[in-house]
Each structure stands twice: as structure tokens, then as C-alpha cells.
């Protein structure tokens, strides 16, 4: 079937919004596909190369049959050649013509000009296409959760879950840190986090977290994402992003990211503890955090979090630009889990 692939145009946004909600079987007002969010994703300046961030496929003379969004970034950190390698990840990837090759053609278009890419979690269909596109499994990212308000499952009508949550809360009580960290809210990140970035990049590989990237997330049009500095006295020891999303009457808190300037277990425990307490203060019913590193996992467990499931982290790196055996720092920031 003939079809045309071209960059998304601003006038396509209303049609794309309907296409995504219908294709993913979500409510028509789902935030991830709302017109204001789509404009933010695909047209607000990102601070990187001015290339299309959204591609649509149309039947010849007809409507949309496919879409793929691009989040351009870079791998930075320990052992990365030249200190930085361009990368991307794909979002809002959908084809309504199974077997037509539309999804694969959109992926190939996304890969043009970028030598690496990654994916965090994906549908069975997407994993199949990515397997043919050179994505290898780099590891599993455990997803941890802590129930902050025990009435959550009861209010949501999941009575069996309420009993399970009660047992977990009693068995996995958070421990208070010996040396707590303070949180300072910020509306804009700046050079105060540069020493933290420099220190952490010596031990892990991650996608770009320079201030421009973090500040763009803080401008998410639906709100709910907050920025924080973690301090010890007058010293900035780290930074973090939190988000609060309501789904089905439940307020879901997320540790979108937490980065500290040392790997000291007590420091990471104190950071995660302070962030979980802040989510509780904001009214979150649950708190979720990802732990691709051992130090993050230890900190979350110390704060009463338990594993719920895992997400596949896949990397496309045919030229071997990312060091083999690299320790990846992967959080909701690596995908659109920060705000969905």
C-alpha cells in the first residue's frame, strides 16, 4: 500500500492527537496525546540540533497510518569516546497497518544521522521491530514502589491489594538516615549542578542531564514536575526531579531522577528518603523509582521501597561507541515515564 513519510507539521497536531488515543485505546483526553503536550514534545526548542522530532506516515491522499516521535539526546559518562555520543529514543510509536512495514520504515527514518539509540520498555510488536533494527538487551531496570498512604488500594476498589500493601508496609519499613539531606526547590537549574554532573559522570553512563534538558522538563505544560537541590549545610550534594500524576483517582508520585556527587550509601539513602518524604507531603499515594545501579537499589530498599517489575533497557550501538559493560544510570527521565 503506497504511503508517504514526512515530518509532523503544527497543523497535524489535532489529527495526531486523535490517532494516538484511538490507536493506543486511551481516553480522548489522555495527557500524553493532548495538543498542548504534543506541541511541547515536538516543537518547543530542545537545545539540540534543529531536526524533526516527529514523523508521520500517511496513506496516499489519506489519513495517518503511522507515527514516531524522537527524543534526541547524548550518552555521556565513564569511558564514552570524546565524552559524548549522540543518541535518541523513540516515543509515541504507532502503526495501524500491521505487516505493512510502516513501523520499520519510521524507525529507519529516526535512525538516520544518529549512530546510537536506546529504548526503555516496549510493546511486544515494538521489540520485534527493534530486534531487526540492531537493538540489544543491555539489562533489566528494576522498578521499585512504596505505598505512602495505605488507603490507596481501598479507595481504588482493590481490596485484595490493600491487604498486600499493608503487609509490605509492615515488612519494609523505611529507615531514617543518620545524616539527612535538605531539599531546596528550584524553578530553574543552573551551574550549581555542574560539579555534581562532573563527579557522577566518572562512574556511570547516562543520557544528557545538563540544565537545559532538566529545565525543559520543568516546563511540561500540564505541571506536576518539580526540581530540587539536595544540600548538606551550604553545599549542594545533588539534584532531583519529582513528578505527581493522577490516574484513576490515585496520585502517583515518581522519583524522576536523583543524582548525587558521591556513591556513599548513607548519602544515597538520605537523598531517596528526603525525596519520598516530599512526595508524601505533596499528597502522593505511592512513590515509584527506578534502580539500574546497585547504589540506587540499596537506597530505595533502605527507604521502604519494594520491587514491582522490571523494564527492558535496549541499546542500538552497531559501532561500539558505548563502552562494553558500562554501568547505566537509567530513570524515568530516559523515557516519557516522567509525565505519563
Summarize the structure.
By secondary structure, the protein is an alpha+beta fold. 28% of the residues lie in helices and 32% in strands.
Topology of helices and strands:
Blueprint: E1 3-7, H1 13-23, H2 35-42, E2 54-59, E3 64-77, E4 84-95, H3 102-111, E5 117-120, H4 124-132, E6 135-147, H5 152-155, H6 159-171, E7 182-186, H7 194-200, E8 205-207, H8 211-218, E9 225-232, E10 235-247, E11 250-260, H9 265-281, E12 286-290, H10 294-302, E13 306-316
Parallel strand pairs: 11-12
Antiparallel strand pairs: 1-2, 2-3, 3-4, 3-8, 5-13, 6-12, 6-13, 7-9, 9-10, 10-11
Helix pairs in contact: 9-10
The tally of structural domains comes to 2
The arrangement of helices and strands along the chain is EHHEEEHEHEHHEHEHEEEHEHE
User: What percent of residues adopt helix (DSSP H or I)?
Assistant: 25-40%
* Quantity of strands, as a count: 13
On the 0 to 100 scale, the average pLDDT is 90
First CA to last CA: what distance?
A: 33 Å
SS strand fraction: 25-35%
Largest sheet: 8 strands, mixed
Q: List low-pLDDT spans.
A: none
The name of the CATH superfamily of the largest domain reads: Gcn5-related N-acetyltransferase (GNAT)
Give me the Rg, rounded.
20 Å
In the CATH classification, which architecture of the largest domain applies?
3-Layer(aba) Sandwich
Per the CATH scheme, the topology name of the largest domain is Aminopeptidase
- How many helical stretches? 10
Amino acid at each position: 500500500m503506497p504511503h508517504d513519510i514526512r515530518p509532523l507539521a503544527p497543523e497535524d497536531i489535532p489529527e495526531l492527537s486523535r490517532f494516538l488515543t484511538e490507536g493506543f485505546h486511551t481516553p480522548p483526553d489522555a495527557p500524553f496525546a493532548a495538543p498542548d503536550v504534543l506541541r511541547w514534545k515536538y516543537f518547543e526548542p530542545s537545545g539540540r540540533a534543529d531536526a524533526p522530532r516527529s514523523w508521520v506516515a500517511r496513506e496516499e491522499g489519506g489519513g495517518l497510518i503511522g507515527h514516531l516521535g524522537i527524543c534526541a539526546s547524548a550518552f555521556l559518562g565513564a569511558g564514552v569516546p570524546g565524552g559524548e555520543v549522540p543518541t535518541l529514543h523513540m516515543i509515541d510509536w504507532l502503526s495501524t497497518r500491521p505487516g505493512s512495514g510502516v513501523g520499520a520504515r519510521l524507525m529507519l527514518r529516526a535512525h538516520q544521522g544518529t549512530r546510537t539509540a536506546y529504548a526503555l520498555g516496549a510493546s511486544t510488536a515494538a521489540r520485534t521491530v527493534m530486534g531487526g533494527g540492531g537493538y540489544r538487551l543491555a539489562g533489566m531496570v528494576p522498578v521499585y514502589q512504596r505505598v505512602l498512604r495505605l488507603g490507596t488500594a481501598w479507595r481504588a476498589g482493590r481490596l485484595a491489594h490493600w491487604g498486600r500493601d499493608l503487609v509490605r508496609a509492615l515488612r519494609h519499613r523505611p529507615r531514617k538516615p543518620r545524616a539527612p539531606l535538605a531539599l531546596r526547590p528550584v524553578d530553574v537549574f543552573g551551574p550549581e549542578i555542574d560539579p555534581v554532573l562532573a563527579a557522577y559522570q566518572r562512574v556511570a553512563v547516562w543520557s544528557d542531564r545538563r540544565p537545559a534538558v532538566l529545565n525543559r522538563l520543568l516546563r511540561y505544560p500540564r505541571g506536576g514536575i518539580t526540581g530540587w537541590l539536595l544540600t548538606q549545610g551550604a553545599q549542594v550534594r545533588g539534584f532531583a526531579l519529582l513528578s505527581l500524576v493522577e490516574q484513576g483517582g490515585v496520585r502517583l508520585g515518581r522519583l524522576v531522577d536523583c543524582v548525587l556527587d558521591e556513591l556513599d550509601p548513607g548519602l544515597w539513602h538520605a537523598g531517596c528518603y528526603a525525596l519520598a518524604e516530599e512526595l508524601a507531603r505533596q499528597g502522593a499515594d505511592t512513590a515509584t523509582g527506578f534502580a539500574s545501579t546497585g547504589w540506587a537499589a540499596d537506597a530505595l530498599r533502605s527507604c521502604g521501597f519494594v520491587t514491582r517489575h522490571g523494564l527492558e533497557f535496549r541499546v542500538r550501538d552497531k559501532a561500539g561507541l558505548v563502552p562494553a559493560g558500562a554501568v547505566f544510570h537509567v530513570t524515568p527521565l530516559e523515557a516519557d515515564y516522567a509525565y505519563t
